[in-house]
Amino acid sequence: MAVTIKAVFLDKDGTLVDDIPFNVEPRRITLRNGAGAGLRLLARLDYR
Question: What is the domain extent for residue 38?
Fold first, then answer.
């Protein structure tokens, strides 16, 4: 029997983190409101 793996694909800029065009400074990256909670929920639901 085949194993089913649940997956979700997200674009980070403007979805998970604030969109800062051409950003090359990792210290400027911050999660958008609710992004962390959403990622934790997906992990609890076995999404990879």
Answer: 1-48
* 17 and 31 Cβ atoms separated by less than 8 Å: yes
Whether pLDDT at 35 is above 90: yes
**Dihedral over Cα of 37, 39, 33, 23: its sign:** positive
pLDDT in tens, 7-26: 999 888 888 999 988 888 99
For the chain, what is the domain count? 1
Q: pLDDT averaged over the chain?
A: 91
C-alpha distances (whole Å) from 6 to each of 10, 14, 17, 22, 23 are 14, 23, 23, 32, 31
Task: Check residue 8 and report its DSSP letter.
Answer: -
